[in-house]
Amino acid sequence: xxxxxxxxxxxxxxxxxxxxxxxxxxxxxxxxxxxxxxxxxxxxxxxxxxxxxxxxxxxxxxxxxxxxxxxxxxxxxxxxxxxxxxxxxxxxxxxxxxxxxxxxxxxxxxxxxxxxxxxxxxxxxxxxxxxxxxxxxxxxxxxxxxxxxxxxxxxxxxxxxxxxxxxxxxxxxxxxxxxxxxxxxxxxxxxxxxxxxxxxxxxxxxxxxxxxxxxxxxxxxxxxxxxxxxxxxxxxxxxxxxxxxxxxxxxxxxxxxxxxxxxxxxxxxxxxxxxxxxxxxxxxxxxxxxxxxxxxxxxxxxxxxxxxxxxxxxxxxxxxxxxxxxxxxxxxxxxxxxxxxxxxxxxxxxxxxxxxxxxxxxxxxxxxxxxxxxxxxxxxxxxxxxxxxxxxxxxxxxxxxxxxxxxxxx
Length: 410
Prior knowledge:
Elements: H1 2-32, E1 69-70, E2 76-79, H2 86-95, E3 111-114, H3 125-141, E4 145-148, H4 152-158, H5 167-188, H6 215-225, H7 230-234, E5 242-245, E6 248-251, H8 257-262, H9 264-275, H10 309-317, E7 324-327, E8 337-339, E9 344-346, E10 361-366, E11 370-375, H11 387-395, H12 402-405, E12 407-408
Parallel strand pairs: 1-5, 2-3, 3-4, 6-7, 7-9, 11-12
Antiparallel strand pairs: 2-10, 5-6, 8-9, 10-11
Helix pairs in contact: 1-5, 5-6
């Protein structure tokens, strides 16, 4: 009889953890339409009792350190600002043959860098975060890598600055909050699970200058995205702020020499500590103002002759082996282009319907040498219509080898 009890006790004690994983998966699918199973659901290792508090739980592993430096990749795709447009996000990935018609990863060992600004201006912000997380896992299983970065809009939202939020964006977060709270209530009914944390704890009931019909959406967004919030901790804590891959430096706005001397790895670590609720409400100083890493426009002005090329050369000289800086943040009306002798590559094409509704383009890099623009713009199928247009493109600093080698996809 005692042997029978021993055999049945282990499955029974695993029930709370299994139920919790099921509820989380159920909530994820209800919010995003994606199945995101727990990465390491190891209920057998948990030591639950019949009380509401876990007894001697196995500590969760610390998150892996953010990686700032990567060697040159055989194939790297850089994608600009997405701003809540899931359709354009998928179009961009399909341009580079990274996903198939079923939205599954087919990019093999490719590396993808999404340069920030997933949030604001559109209504699919959460769906994009979930989708990129799904692809991150699928890519990893195939030897690929998906790297996501912070833009100024991620920083703004974690600080509670919702100036560029749409009604659809508020509705999406309100829907998330409804399902998330349903999941918490389900967990609270199960003995053996710790009482779930209330995501709305400390969130104001009303906000100055916010209409009553938007209050619930505002509250949900604050609850989800504040430092150490459920969405912030789950998705945005994986973002880097600065990145070096081979001889290319990636940053949303731009880097100055003072940022490099402060320390690129230090910047990544400090921003993640802030995201995880360890540094107060406000982001570090280098994330604020026109000369910050996520707001700088010195090297991304639409007209190449207005870029501060001497400052860019100085910055690149302080990063061993760096030959170019790749940036988003500033919309390039005529597509991805280069300035300062192709040392500044600007990849924000304003593709979101809420932010220009431009045609998707992505940058492809092979090793440290080859750069190519992959575009859905049909104009590239024709020769320049006039010498005036050719001069205009040259004045914008297009990659010298770019237009001739552009790969066009419908």
